Amino acid sequence: MQWLLETQSLEDFLQSLADAALALTEAEGAGVTIERERRPLTVASSGPAALKLDEKQYGQDDGPCLQAARTGEEVAVEDMLRETRWGDYPAYAVACGIRSSLSLPIAARTHTTGALNLYAGPPQAFEAADRSALRSLAAQATGAIALAQRIADAQAFAEQMQTAMQSRGVIDQALGVVMGQRGCTADEAFGILRSASQHRNIKLRDLCTELITNLTGRPPTTPAWGPRP
Question: Cα(162)–Cα(6) distance, rounded to whole angstroms?
Fold first, then answer.
């Protein structure tokens, strides 16, 4: 997890994991596939073979890396020459000089799944591989993706709250105007604004913005929302 502290982005971190996976094995290529809403993407790769083989699988929407990502199970191919799964993908891999592969699931059964993929020229290249170390790398990728998702969710929530607070500020200003003009309570003023909004079929915030703008000659100001220093 030290890499996570030393890298500047999730992509950089996953690239470090791909490089580490390549160094742990005799693979000629390593890559990290991330899939969200059945849209796979290679976000990191090492070696010339990985990206080509990943893209072939994405094109036919099938292959060992996608199977690992979608099932949450490791997928090992001992010899592409004897492989009968995944259509013409095994023949393509052989043509690219790759006869064995290993795909380990990342973030299985979440909204953002993926796989750590390793490709090697000889058959049975991963029989002696340190699977525990490779699974540890896949687990680190899972943790990093989960962290990135939580940060993204928190940012989206903060933006939604800011929009809500800004809307509330505009509505409060309009309520004050109506209360002053009609000599009514806040609840009565809100009822007047809501009825006008429904009658004109526009959003309440837009109606209030229009009211304040027409009254003052400029759009309403809204208080900044967010953590105080």
Answer: 32
Alpha carbons 143 and 15: distance in angstroms, whole number: 15
DSSP letter for each residue of 189-215: HHHHHHHHHHHHT--HHHHHHHHHHHH
In the block, residue with structure tokens 């699974």? 135
Residue 185 C-beta-side C-alpha neighbours within 13 Å: 2
Residue type present at position 101: S
Instruction: Please state the pTM of the whole predicted model.
Output: 0.65
- Alpha-carbon gap, residue 188 to 159, rounded angstroms: 30
| CA separation for the pair 122, 97 (Å, rounded) | 8
User: How far is residue 70's CA from residue 68's CA, in Å, rounded to a whole number?
Assistant: 6
Q: pLDDT digit string (tens) for 113-158? A: 899 999 999 999 999 889 999 999 988 888 877 776 666 666 666 6
Can you tell me the mean pLDDT for 68-89? 96
The three-class DSSP label of residue 164 is helix
